[in-house]
Structure prediction request, 525 residues.
Amino acid sequence: METANTIAAINETTGLAPAAGGVVMLETALIDPNPANPRRDVGDVGELADSIRAQGIRQNLLVVPAPEGRFTLVIGHRRLAGAKLAGLERVPAVVAELDEREQRELMLVENSQRTDLTVVEEADGYQRLLDLGSSVEEAARKTGRSVSLVRRRLKVAAIDDDMRSHVGAAQLSIEDWETIADYEAWPDLQERLAKAAGGRNWNMAVREAKTERKWREWLASARATLAGLGIEPIEEELSETGQYSCPEGLRALEYHSSGDIGEAVAEWREEFGNDPVVGIRALTWGRAVVFYREVDEQAEAEAKREREERFAAEREERERAEAPARGFSDASRELRLTFVSHLMELKGQPKGMGRAVALLASRFTLAVLTEGFSQWNSNADDIWASLTQSIEATSGDDGDGDFDPLRVSVEAMIKRDPARAALGLLIAAAEDAIDWTTWRDPEAIDRHAAPLYEALDALGYRQSESESDALNGSLIPSGDDGSDTGEAEAALEEDAKLRETPEEGSAEADEAGDAGETGEVVQAE
Prediction:
């Protein structure tokens, strides 16, 4: 009856008779778009305008009366825009009495059937229905959608306009919008995702946001647990160098970045009989909940001084034990190289060179076959230079523009005397495998030193007594050779690790970060 009265009022105002079914011809100038229309942009209506010019409007608009003789459009926003573009002054419309909730339901139903309605537009449409009192179930029933779909759209509707503005014109899937919506409780993370949405950094931004959220959620839970246990943590800050340092009088024993803090405290109480002093490192890469144990700074300093003294004594003892081997190694090498250098200068081939070359070549080939082969290092270069320093070498280019003195020198000798070149190369390779540590290791003597001296003997080299003794093991330590890090030195290194966290970006920091991600408890004992 109210609709009939409305139509009668229209007739009286416009002088137009309604068509069959209650359709009237309304001036386009009197029809306003509905501000609650889910579709915010009607898009390009050029083709629609051409069709309207040729065939007119075949489907009526639906409007509701508005103050001052105007009308508000409910259904037909694209048709109205097309009619105005086509130059129509009047359009066929059905005038209905609908409350705001009914209007929004109709607009949402109509627009949700269209494929070009954006996720955000549809989401906002459902939210407006809920704002007017509809339940999720009712909204789903009225629009022919599932309850789960409506709930998913409502998650997107919760994203505020400022956050949406960061997305810009990027076309996102419902899954992308839902991911952004999931971070409503963390505006800074939500903003990062919104800015990355639609770009190539999206997947990385999502991964980083998940990691950050996981940490924040765990830390919030840890704080609550500590509060329940009556433990007030220390909020630690980074130093100017980007490091965390243990507070004075404390030593860090455990670092937690996941797991049950309550269980960790219980285990601590069982081991130490009291509560830990807890520090929270919440900034950047080194984040963790740290368990400290109180220490006597004076006693710690005294213990450190004692360890330093022991370390100095250990180092002195080690150097004293190594001195004979170091001295012998330098002296014996000088004797050997002097002898071979003289042979390299002889006009004729040295006596026994064939046997020496055969022995060295066999050993070298065996090492290549069983141990692999590595390029000569600078030490081998120096040995060759020492052996050939009195021999004129051909200088020049090796063919590719890069001058290689070693290659040039060797190739020049190969052209003049390949047997002597082979001797020099093999001696250099053998010498390169020997250093002062060789003489303190029976296996190294057998594998490297003894074969070299066998070849030198074939060339007429006369061993000194000290060389014979060394070959027989006179320099091999009777006990610990002191080459390993001593207890005092190891303790000093551990002190440094306990009192300082690696700087951000370092390899140690990366390892600490990996341990944190996997939830490992890092213990320092």
Strands lie at 23-27, 31-32, 61-66, 70-75, 90-95, 234-235, 250-256, 277-281, 288-294, 522-523. The first strand starts at residue 23 and ends at 27. Confidence is low (pLDDT under 50) at residues 1-21, 394-398, 480-484, 499-520. The CA atoms of residues 189 and 285 lie 17 Å apart.
